[in-house]
Each structure stands twice: as structure tokens, then as C-alpha cells.
Design a protein that fits this description.
homodimer, Ribonuclease iii, N-terminal Endonuclease Domain, Chain A, three-stranded antiparallel sheet, elongated
Chain lengths: ~240, ~240
């Protein structure tokens, strides 16, 4: 350690580490306290090793943690932002935010791919979610490095508000009913929505609608209006028919 | 408002509200600040109404929020408690904690059913998760009432550590391989595990095992030992065969 390093209380950092530190500081919005957390967060399993004490050195554990933090921060954000929307709406919009495609594209916006260490042959794999997963791991690292409140602010200010158009996300492709009808026309099937009352937990103000394809019941939806109940039934049917 | 109520800064509380307040304080471990949050958390949709401004007055939004908080607190707890376990283990144990049966039984332990308001005809429905959902809603209410740190302590100290035997949860029924073999014997099918190397993202220290039933490949598992890879393949097969 040089005099100046001792004097400043710092140990020497390689140029590579310094560049990595600056890149993370740029993404997170302030200097990381524990750079090793972020090194781990960007270490893909194709290259990570196993330490003597059996610890798998890759970003998968941090990804698990970051995924949970992200889900909760997004849940709270939507809960507060949309006080008059029901839990079906909140669940749907959250799933659009945390789904693979969105996370991969956010990771690209943030410049995560340049930081991830992985085996060359892994890079070509299209359709996988290496970078979206690494983004979740980085979120896990931010949470461990700086705590919940800081991490929440990081997710909202540096990711969601910066790169996501929530109202676009909400209005894209919500119309499951027209999706089903379109599909049925193409497949020459007959779609019908019928009022029903099969479940005995229905409240007096709720509607229940069954969706039938060629006279076979495919799904049931409930809601506080017929339109909502139809949408729910259609959404369920889209899932079953793998149209989503 | 009486002189004493004004003097003490309190409004009169009905006896019913006072009993409800005491029951919540007993569950949460300290007096609730906003009792209305907990009233909403215990209001099932079979009885909840819609207010003039279109707000659905029932516990489903709070359930959405509480579910996210619980998932995250459990994720962090497991992450810290099991530093040498991989994300597959963490995911599996978390799903055992937050699954319907566990939440329903925790709700019973905490005395939630006595507090939930719902239509009489709904009560008989076995196999549903009214009380487990209400527990999640109560967690959401605690989070809004007292913040993240308090809510985390509530979940860990008053729920997880109090009523869950984690090591029992971990050692119950983890053996997917024997589950598959048992099933195959009963169904007179032939099960085989074969080493393979189909995916090109496999790290040098990882094993890949395919599970075959009557010579058809059902699933693939990877892991840092053959045993782990077999378990993963067997778990995947159990899911596909709906044996879980």
C-alpha cells in the first residue's frame, strides 16, 4: 500500500476494477460500498466456479433476491399509483413489468450486457434471459449494499421512471376478448360468452361469465361488470390456448 | 365527543371496534395506528361493497400487496439463513412457505378466521384460501400501517419463527426421484436417468441428466453433482406429470 493509499484509507484498485466501479456507480447513481457484490451479480453461471467451502460463485442467488425485491417494489408502486384499480389489474401490470422481455430490454438500456462475464459460447443464445437475470442480480446487490429504501428509489427513479412507459404498458394488448375472437375467426371456431352462476362464492354485485368455444366451456370470469367478467374469462382462455 | 375524549385526543370507539383493535394488537404485537386498514384487510369480497368513487371495498388489493411483502421478506430471510444453498433450494423452500396450505394453516394459528367478515354461504367452501388470503391482506395492512422494517420483524418473529418449523419444511418430501420411481412402479412404466449434454450453456463443473419414461425424454436437470441433476430432472418431471 502506498503512502497516499494509506493516507486516503484506500487500497490499490486495478484499472479494470476502477472501470467496473465507475460503470456500476453510473448505473446505481452513487458509489457502491461493496464492489464484490456487484462482481458476483455480473458473474454468469457459465463461468462461475465453486469455492472450497462449497459456495457456488455466480449470480443466481442474487438474482433470486433481486427478483423478490423488484416484485415487491413494483407491487407497492402500482398499489399506490392506481388506488382505484383492482388486484387483477395490479397483478397483470406487474407481470408485464417483470417479464423476461421487459427485463432484458431494461438491462440493455442500463448497459448491463457490457458488464456481464460469461463464456463466449453462451453469448449467442438468443431468447434466453441472461441479461434480464443479471439486472435482477444487480438489484439484489444494490439491496444488500444499500438497504431497502435506497434500492426502492434506485428501482423507481433509475429504472421504472427512466425507461418504462407505464401507460403504454397498460394500454398495450389488454383486449383479451378481441384476441380470442380474432383467433376463433382464423381457426373457424365459434366463440360465445354466457352469463352463468356456477360458483357459490359470488357476491351480489358480481357478474360471472363463461366463455364457450364450439359449445365447450373453456373458462369462467368474474367481475363487477359484464365487460370485466368477459375480459377475465377471455384472459383465462388466452392462457389456456397459449395465445399470450 | 366527551370532555375526556377531547382531553385524551381520542374519539369514542364502539365496543366492537375496541375488541377488533385488541385482537389485531394481539396478532401484530402492538397497537395498530390505522384500524381501518385492518378492517379492510379482513373484509372478504363476498361481503365488500363498491363506494361512490368506484373503489371496491374488500381485501383483495391488500392481499396483492401483502403477498409481495411476504415473498420478499421470506426471500431475504432464506438468502441470509442459507448462504451455501443455491437459488433452486431457496425458490423451492420459499414456495413451500407461501403456498396456500401453509398460509391457511398459519392464518388459523394466528386466529385470523374469527376476524374475517364474509357471507355465511361462503364459509362452507373447503379447499379455498379465504383465510390464507386474509393473512396476506393483514400483512399488507401492517406494511402500510408501520412500514417495511416493522412488517419484516412482524413476519419473521410473529409468524415464521413462531409457527413454522423450517427444517421440517425442508426435509419433507424433497425426494422427487423416489416420487417418480414410486409412480412409475404403480403405473408399470420404465424410468431411466441418462447423462446427456444437450444444452450448450453448461459449465464445465455441471452435470446434465435426462429423465426418460418408457424411452421418451420427459425432462432435463442440471446440477453440480449427478444427484442434484437427477433431482432437478425428477422435480421437473413431477411437475409435468402433476405429481406435486
Amino acid at each position: 500500500m502506498s503512502f497516499w493509499e494509506k493516507f486516503l484509507g484506500k487500497t490499490a484498485r486495478s484499472e479494470k476494477d476502477q472501470l467496473f466501479n465507475d460503470a456500476i456507480a453510473n448505473i446505481v447513481g452513487s458509489e457502491p460500498k461493496n464492489l464484490d457484490l456487484f462482481k458476483l451479480a455480473t458473474l454468469h453461471s457459465s463461468i462461475g466456479s465453486i469455492t472450497k467451502d462449497g459456495f457456488r460463485e455466480n449470480n443466481e442467488r442474487l438474482e433470486f433476491l433481486g427478483d423478490a425485491v423488484l416484485s415487491m417494489v413494483v407491487a407497492e408502486h402500482l398499489f399506490v399509483k392506481y388506488p382505484f384499480q383492482d388486484e387483477g389489474f395490479l397483478t397483470e401490470i406487474r407481470s408485464r413489468i417483470v417479464k423476461r422481455e421487459t427485463l432484458n430490454s431494461l438491462a440493455n438500456e442500463l448497459g448491463i450486457p457490457k458488464l456481464v462475464e460469461l463464456q463466449d459460447r453462451t453469448k449467442g443464445n438468443r431468447g434466453n434471459s441472461i441479461y434480464g437475470n443479471a439486472l435482477e442480480a444487480v438489484i439484489g446487490a444494490v439491496f444488500l449494499d444499500r438497504g431497502y429504501t435506497f434500492c426502492k428509489k434506485f428501482i423507481l427513479d433509475k429504472i421504472i421512471k427512466q425507461y418504462l412507459d407505464l401507460s403504454l404498458l397498460i394500454h398495450t394488448d389488454t383486449n383479451y376478448k378481441s384476441k380470442i375472437i380474432e383467433w376463433a375467426q382464423k381457426e373457424a371456431k365459434e366463440v360465445a360468452f354466457e352469463s352463468t352462476n356456477q360458483s357459490n362464492t359470488l357476491a351480489s354485485h358480481e357478474f360471472e361469465i363463461a366463455l364457450l368455444i364450439d359449445h365447450h366451456q373453456i373458462s369462467i370470469g368474474t367481475g363487477t361488470s359484464k365487460k370485466r367478467a368477459e375480459q377475465e374469462a377471455a384472459q383465462e382462455a388466452c392462457k389456456k390456448l397459449k395465445l399470450l
